[in-house]
Amino acid sequence: MKIRYALSMLALTTLLLGRPAGADPSSAWQRAIHFPAGPADGLAARDGYVYALSGWTRGDAVLIFDVRDPAAPRFVHGFPGRGYVRGGAFKDSVYYLPAIYWSVMTIDVAEPERARLLRSLFFNFPVGDVASLAVDGDRLYVGGRGGGLRILDITNPETPLLVAHHPQFGFLNQIVAADGLLILRPQRGESILATVADDQVQEHGRIQLGGQIRLLGSALYETIRNEWIVRDLANPAEPEVSERIAGFSPIGLLAPDQMLAAGPDQTLTVFDVSNPLQPVRQRDIALPPGVTPGNAVIDNGTLVVSDRSRISLRLFDLSGDTARQTAERFIMRNAGNLALAADGHAFLSYAQGMDTTVFTLDLAGDEATADFAARLGQQVASRDDAYGVHDTHNAAAIARVGNYLLNGDGVLDISNPLQPQVVQPIRRVASEIAIRGHLAALAQSDRLTLLDVSKLPERVVLGEYRPEGEGVHLTGVALGEGLAFLVNHSRGLRQVEVLDIRDPANPQPLGRCEIPQGIVAALHENLLYVPASGSGGMTLVDVADPAAPKVLKTLPGLVDTGSYRIRVHEGKLYYTDSMRGIRVADLADPLNPVLIETHVGTTAHSASYTDFEIRDGKLYGLRYSHLDIWSVGE
After folding, report:
1. Which of 219, 284, 358, 539 is deepest in the core (most CB within 10 A)?
2. Pair 150, 142: CB distance under 8 Å
3. Pairwise CA distance, residues 146 & 162, whole Å
4. Are 13 and 578 in contact (CB under 8 A)?
């Protein structure tokens, strides 16, 4: 958790202090393909569009999908965030979103496919923390950590006016407002029942609330322990429980007088709420098996569910007694790795927990956004085999060999990129895969696995090497003639190790040396280039004598932060440098590489690249929500 937090804050800091948001990409730029990426933890719907909230500083904070045609939803826009966003509220065509570290984002969604940030409303909470907000009429209510309640006049959303501040309410974790009623829910203790008149808050009483709450007229809906509790707030000083409905959780309005609720056994139930204080059960709708619902919204009779297990949006027609799926759109959950097919497709992969996922991305056409053309998911058999290094993308290496894709030590048939097939199931993920001739070397944490790739789709294991002792975490591998160069990046040890692999069935250690840091390496002539993994610098290791590798020097300036991938191509060194982009150094003098260019896409989004490939004079760079393409070598 500490590592993830540090990376997130690094991303946020770089976003604030780096190049201006929306800066022009580097020269030789061709195009970027924007794909849906992020956790998609929350959903909202408005006028045929669904907004999935990712809560990510590194990718998209808001993913926008056009669902006007339920059979053919489209990902149309991904909006970068300023901090971790939470559930927001609409006022006309403006979407207000609370964001940890950046207060309130106000987004103009009049044209959802060209949504734009109007402004950020920053308040002097600790680190700009806004945890909750609500809109009622022309008033925006905002609460956060230690900041109390702020009320803003949003008659003109581009120039909101702070009209009242009530610091006595402290840390407000949730705010609900409707027709002058106001419920303030602190982080701890009882919730406050109040009314608002002339921006003055009059407290009427306190009540213990749990779970999720919402207001419909004067009816307060609370869901706790799978029970729907309805309270009458006509007199907020004396709230009365009017109904208790066991086993149901309100989802949202299906129509002005119909509420959809989640029930037991994967069912949905429609309630008549024409009298909000006395919901009446009308009909049950069964969800198909295999759906793991998270958040859900309804738009024009279409149910959109975020599926937690598949990391997708699933659309259902509710016109019958059974919810009928009309479409599904997948979302990339975390940072990923890249492999290029031979026919204009790319494959993106990531690992999350014990699940591995490979997506197909169509590179044809000139659209700025693209949905994934196919998805293939597998589960690693043992938790010991699902590991991560600094982030999950380092445990999701893939490599193409002809019509096959190595996915860790698994094999996929990609002769039809739109229908990838598992030929050999994945048994263990890999941080990096290096291929030389018919030999593939997989860095797999506590071992190096050597595969013969000339007999694919048959998986032929030639040999394994497992370093002795504790503190082994193999993260990178490079191949030479009869040699393998390993990077070991464990907590207590940073080193490069050289193996004799002339007999792959019996790899033998030759020598090793400690390095400052690094998780990957590239070989050129008799030098191993190891970029830093956190604090900058490029270490040069002399491997002319494989039995006695030695650090020659560490050069500053080539790497500012940390690198996830490095390769040598036509006498040049290509490597990622965290959010600085993909850098290129000239190796005309191998002992003194010279930085000659940096490739960075538009920086409104995170420019932290996790993988890249070079093919046919083009550089393909993968970051959290984009695949960027440049011309190189001209």
Report:
1. 358
2. yes
3. 17
4. no
Lowest-confidence segment of 226-230, 345-349, 534-538 by average pLDDT: 534-538
Other beta carbons within 10 Å of 112: 23
User: Residues of 584-615 as b/e, b for ≥16 C-beta within 10 angstroms?
Assistant: bbebeeeeebebebebbbbbbbbbbbbbbbbe
Cis, peptide link before residue 457, omega less than 30° from 0 = yes
Q: What's the CA gap between 616 and 89, in Å, rounded?
A: 47
Q: Residue 632: which H helix or E strand, with range?
A: none
Contacts of 365 (CB under 8 A, 6+ apart): none
Cα separation, 411 vs 392, in Å, equals 20
Residue 118 has a CB neighbour count (10 Å cut-off) of 17
What DSSP line would sit under 7-18, residue for residue? HHHHHHHHHHHS
Percentage of the chain beyond pLDDT 90 is 68
Q: Which residues pair with 566 in a beta bridge?
A: 575
| Cα 193 to chain centroid, rounded | 37
Neighbours of 131 (CB within 10 A): 21
User: Which amino acid would we find at residue 578?
Assistant: S
Two domains, one topology: 82-209 and 337-631: yes
- Among all chains, which residue has been given the structure tokens 């009882």? 190
Q: Amino acid identity, residue 532?
A: A
Cβ within 8 Å of residue 525, ≥6 positions away: 590
**623: closest CA among 547, 564, 554?**
564
Q: What is the 3-state secondary structure (H, E, C) of 446-475?
A: CCEEEEECCCCCCCEEEEEECCCCCCCCEE
Write out the two tokens for 334: 């975390």
Q: Map out the domains of the chain as residue ranges.
A: 82-209, 337-631
| pLDDT attached to residue 2 | 30
Identify whether the C-beta of residue 149 lies closer than 8 Å to the C-beta of residue 162: no
Q: Does domain 82-209 have CATH number 2.130.10.10?
A: yes
Tokens 């029970």 -> residue: 227
> Full-prediction pTM beyond 0.85?
yes
SS3 346: strand
- Kindly tell me if the per-residue pLDDT of 571 is higher than 80: yes
pLDDT tens digits for range 53-68: 987 667 788 999 999 9
Candidates 53, 13, 19; CA nearest to 36 is 53
Q: How far is CA 335 from CA 119, 358, 559, 620, in A?
A: 28, 12, 20, 15
Q: In whole angstroms, what separates CA 159 from the centre of its chain?
A: 32
Q: Report d(CA 69, CA 406) in Å as an integer.
A: 36
Give the Å distances, CA to CA, from 424 to 365, 378, 407: 32, 11, 9
CATH code of the region 337-631 = 2.130.10.10
451-499 tens-digit pLDDT: 999 999 999 999 999 998 777 889 999 999 999 999 998 877 899 999 9
